[in-house]
Hints:
By secondary structure, the protein is an alpha+beta fold. It has five helices and three strands. A hairpin with a 5-residue loop joins strand 1 (10-20) and strand 2 (26-33).
Amino acid sequence: xxxxxxxxxxFNFSLPVGLLDTASTTHKSGIIRRxxxxxxxxxxxxxxxxxxxxxxxxxxxxxxxxxxxDLSDITTELLEQLFLPDLNYLLKFYNAIxxxxxxxxxxxx
Length: 109
């Protein structure tokens, strides 16, 4: 399901349910890249993560998802609309492609 090749930095994925946008279009397939140090530093600059560290999952995913269906402007607000199976899928997918020290958790740890 997930290939973890050190030289690969972008990965295709397909959500189990899909993100439904305001025009009732479902977006399922996408591309995610591995996180960089800048992505991790963005957490310290994002006020919602200060009081709710688990929100950092959305911050990192919004920065690392390159495309979702026809959408290329991926924001935390957009990802808040994900169905729970899709959020769990993305979290597992991200962790499968990330180095161990870069893995995410909804508990904020």
